[in-house]
Write a structure and sequence with these properties.
It is built from 14 helices and 4 strands. The protein has helices spanning 62-73, 81-88, 90-122, 129-138, 148-183, 194-208, 218-240, 260-271, 274-282, 295-318, 335-367, 376-398, 402-429, 440-466; strands spanning 19-20, 23-28, 34-39, 42-43. The strands form 2 sheets. A two-stranded antiparallel sheet has the order 1-4. Strands 2-3 form a two-stranded antiparallel ribbon. Helix 5 (148-183) packs across helix 12 and helix 5 runs antiparallel to helix 13 (402-429). The chain is globular and about 65 Å long. The protein starts with 18 loop residues before the first strand and ends with a helix.
């Protein structure tokens, strides 16, 4: 990533020449860490543009990036949104979902903005989430620079926990769906116990987990998307059928403060996709990600509308009977409902493997430097098998408490990773240049960090109380 020294630049045709007293370059070490290299005075006529220096084999345009973000967020988590409305009430859920979605979009915006700012300062084409955190700390105030490696490890650990525990949530979801689907025809299955289905699932998961290349997971993604479309369509049919017979006065408009922690945790778990944003932005070679008409605003606008609509009408239709996943409210012995259950079960199973790729990649990138190359194959098999067994163990320990697991993951990890960290990184990235008139960005970031801590503490307390 080094930058060659350039001769002193002469003013261009406009007579303007930008001057830099020094330039910093991020150098990647063999262990994956970053080192800042300061070079002597450089004169250049234009500001460094990261997009012009990206060497992307298959770059994403506006449409490709838009679809990636929407597809990532509109997964199985959307089926849990009606439960969030049940926790908060129709009116609070309506405005709360829009507000939380807007805040999530903003924190993604400031994360990308901070990353681009570090890229320009260090003359680096692109940086991931963890590298952005490390770069912000390295170029931030002196007293923070010693913690740059810890910042990267913290973000990587957060990303690992989010995706790894999401897989445990998926396992609970799959076992509940299979139990509901099969027990309608074979009631004796219910006597097996919840853990039996998860142990049976362990066998195919151990086999599929050995797929290592992301390109070989493309068929998994295709099948999952088709199954999601089928399940969403049938669920939508049941959700809107008979909705005219429901009376508004039979639904809670607001449940009080007690329901807010669970609402916030569920919405964050379902809507927040901070871990996939930087790879999508880094795949673009034109600066169309941010801005009023950018990819981010367009994608998040669609996501907020869809989530709010499904949450509102899902709770309005089923009321206090709304389950942790809306598919559990479908009739047990009607063929369309059974097709929806089977489709969502397959969708979550194949999505499991896509999500599993992230924690494995994080752990393996740290371990492989300490293992002889001749033992990489065996080590990968053991690592992947061990992670699958642990994820299954967590799912078994969680029982059938799907909503509880969602609340814990959303409250503990996504409130910190999705809200707190981006706001804190913006504070550091703007340290030298200032935070705007009356430090408005600083004040705004502290409000977001306070909200994140509220979500963490209240959500975790609520989850523990529900245990």
């Amino acid at each position: 990533m080094g930058v060659e020294e350039r001769p002193r630049a002469t003013p261009d045709e406009t007579g303007i020449s930008s001057c830099y007293n020094s330039t910093s370059t991020l150098i990647r070490n063999p262990d994956g860490s970053l080192t800042v290299e300061l070079r002597k005075e450089v004169k250049t006529s234009v500001e460094y543009n990261p997009y012009e220096h990206r060497n992307v084999q298959h770059p994403n345009g506006f449409a490709g990036a838009f679809l990636h973000i929407v597809k990532t967020s509109l997964g199985t988590g959307v089926l849990a949104i009606p439960r969030a409305f049940k926790s908060a009430g129709l009116l609070v859920g309506l405005f709360g979902c829009i507000l939380v979605g807007t805040i999530c979009a903003h924190t993604i915006h400031i994360l990308v903005r901070s990353s681009q700012k570090i890229c320009k300062k260090t003359r680096t084409p692109s940086l991931g989430f963890a590298d952005t955190a490390e770069g912000c700390f390295k170029l931030g105030p002196t007293w923070l620079r010693r913690y740059s490696s810890a910042a990267k490890i913290f973000v990587e650990a957060g990303l690992f926990c989010v995706h790894f525990l999401a897989d445990s949530v998926y396992l609970v979801f799959i076992s509940i769906s299979i139990n509901k689907l099969v027990s309608a025809h074979y009631p004796e299955i219910e006597s097996w116990g919840d853990y039996s289905i998860k142990l049976i699932l362990l066998v195919p998961l151990l086999i599929c987990a050995q797929i290592r290349e992301l390109k070989h997971l493309v068929p998994f993604s295709f099948i999952a998307n088709i199954m999601l479309l089928v399940s969403f369509s049938i669920t939508g049919y049941y959700m809107f059928s008979g909705i005219t017979e429901v009376k508004l006065q039979d639904r809670s408009l607001a449940t009080g403060l007690s329901g807010i922690p669970s609402f916030l945790s569920t919405v964050l778990f379902s809507m927040e996709g901070i871990g996939t944003i930087m790879p999508v932005e880094n795949s673009m070679i034109t600066p169309r990600f941010l801005g009023c008409a950018g990819v981010l605003n367009a994608a998040m606008g669609v996501i907020i509308v869809v989530f709010t609509a499904i949450g509102f009408f899902g709770y309005y239709r089923f009321g206090e009977e709304t389950a942790a996943t809306i598919t559990a409210n479908l009739p047990s012995q009607e063929i369309p409902a059974e097709i929806a259950q089977a489709a969502i079960t397959l969708a979550v199973f194949f999505s499991f493997m896509l999500v599993f790729y992230v924690p494995v990649d994080i752990v393996w990138s740290r371990l492989k430097h300490h293992i002889p190359h001749s033992r990489w194959n065996l080590s990968q098999i053991l690592l992947r098998s061990l992670l699958i067994v642990i994820a299954t163990g967590i799912a078994i320990a969680g029982g059938d408490n799907l909503g509880l697991l969602i609340d814990i993951v959303g409250a503990v990890f996504l409130s910190i990773l999705g809200l707190f960290v981006p706001a804190f990184l913006e504070v550091i990235a703007d340290w030298e240049d200032g935070w705007g008139t009356f430090h408005w960005r600083l004040i705004k970031d502290f409000v977001i960090m306070a909200l994140a801590l509220f979500g963490l503490v209240s959500g975790l307390f609520s989850a523990i109380k529900d245990m």
